[in-house]
Write a structure and sequence with these properties.
homohexamer; 142 residues; alpha+beta; Thiol Ester Dehydrase, Chain A; 5-stranded antiparallel sheet; 35% strand; hydrolase (chains A, B, C, D, E, F); long-chain fatty acyl-CoA hydrolase activity (chains A, B, C, D, E, F)
């Protein structure tokens, strides 16, 4: 599936008291990046509601002045849900700093009644993409 | 374990384009509320780092003008980690609107080297608290 | 009367150029905490309008990384007004850092016409609570 | 004394759930405007600490799209304190919407030890300015 | 034409990773200050739409704790447009730190159809004001 | 040259009083997107200072709920400067909503002394890219 990218410069307003990226800000941006990927894949931003974050894990802190991007890809399509995997990458080093999985549901835009989206995943283009899909599946099958 | 409470009035700056609480804002607040519970239980806010959100699921939307609280409780104590369960409750109706689980690790404040915190959970005071602990455990044992 | 609590972690975005909690942010949070106490005591957040802050005094500065709570209690009930006392407490030391008094008026939610709220204060549970009530009274009697 | 002016356009991010200017935002701006007046009158922004808000009363609500200014004037000079009166005026109608009084103390910039500022008020240029001074005085003499 | 003034205290939330005023914040404030000048000169904030920034150049950085004002003046009146010059001045030193030119168009408030505003510039009160007008003119005649 | 992309969901906190994207927010994001393109092209975010915005013109308003991206490309390389062209595109319609040109200078990171960056533009890959370069050139040659 297509990967979307959302880039941020880390400024003092984004920091915690350790002077690196505040997790609350990082997760807010991740949810927005995941929404964008789901909405652009789905084609309709008004018929999509947030349902759940399954993971947002930090591997390594992000420093002020760094430029980071969230790379977001739909990795699971249920009948009325879409799950997105988002990776937080530091642009200058290429390092993975954080990783998340978020699920949205597709609804009628006024009543918010669940509605099938009809989307199917295409073929995974890499073992990595397949691994993300397998991981997403496990959040649902437990 | 002691439950901490963090309260917010929902204002226009907190909304999404459906005119209810934006999930990105809701999850940012949840991370902060969970941090507060972990830090006050641990006794040291400088020796605590965010590691992972295992869940942040919305059950029902939150409207502008509503007053909501995050009720946060430590529900798992690993050797160098603390997991917090946070419930987002609408104060006037008492309804549960969202629920989350977040893990922090305990570190030396300057080097960020992992360090055992020595905390143990007390006895659960209710079946509900035990259920939260069991659920948190399953995020670690898969 | 019941005391409500609203907790914040102090982050860089909350600071002034002395690198401690900016008074403008501290007073914004105090007004929100006082509103929450008035609305939950009154039972209706849409029929309450801000009228006046009588005091918001800082005793000692608040540092980044500190966790602080506003403890807010209704301390005066006029015919169409409610006055709240809010204390800003540093959670780890227990110190009082700031103290404020705010008055709201009760109105019909669409016309904003003043309307009697019918609330009466219960008996003060401590000399401290009585002292807050006496202080609030003096803002009105001069 | 010289009056300073600080102007804002009211945008959706500044509103409460009644869709007019949120009091928390209005009072944050008032504290900043009062600080500016005190610092520019005193000549040193690093030697000035917030001490207390004596009043911030709203007379009439402010609507989105309105342009408002805070007009701030030093109205009392204690030995180590300066009190500022700030008026919130709607620019297009000229109406007074809110009014506040804030006191700052003058300190040594590193130790925060109180230090006399040596400022004296000039002669009031109007009965109005004298009335503000008299009012400020009453916050101190009770 | 009348000059309007909008003042800000530089706080940590306004900084870039070099710890001085972030250009993105500085230019956002400039656009707001220019809008205020255009709207108050025009007399109607609902019939004015942003069209273009022709310049926003920084000469020298702004430090935390500094107090700065935007001084904004209408310097060009097309048939359906108003161009504003805004200067960012550090209040304590009087230095010019940045300078900008912004054009707004006048419209019917509901349809956003262009409408002649009927305003004409008065006589320039100084060579400086004339120089701003000449400069603005060159953005249009290119 | 490589084009960088930065994506945003339009939320109520980003709106003006006409309920569409506030120009001040749009231009703040444009400056950040342009900085990201310049820094990633240059390879060093600490040696780059904002100098000037030559244009940020809105063609058509942006509505809440829309997803927009800034597409940013270095289009001019002076000896110690880089100029970026940024286009604001609505993702679902593909429409160009706004366009900007911003110049940064390259400096030694501690002294902020101008330093040659040694970058040269590659061959333009399209007539469109060449047109952006020609336009940028005209901001310098008048």
């Amino acid at each position: 599936m297509k990967t979307y990218r959302s880039t941020h410069l880390i400024k003092p307003e984004d920091l915690n008291h350790h002077q690196n990226l505040y997790a609350g800000r990082g997760i807010e941006w991740m949810v927005e990046a995941a929404f964008v990927a789901a909405a652009l894949t789905h084609g309709d931003s008004s018929g999509l509601l947030y349902r759940n974050t399954h993971q947002f894990s930090f591997n390594k802190s992000v420093e002020p002045g760094e430029i980071v991007s969230y790379y977001s890809t739909v990795v699971r399509a249920g009948r009325t849900s879409l799950t997105v995997r988002a990776a937080l990458i530091a642009e200058q080093s290429g390092e993975l700093r954080a990783e998340g999985y978020v699920t949205f549901v597709t609804v009628k835009s006024h009543t918010h009644e669940l509605v099938a989206h009809g989307l199917e995943l295409d073929e995974a283009v890499s073992q990595e993409e397949q691994a993300w899909r397998d991981k997403a599946e496990r959040f649902f099958t437990g």
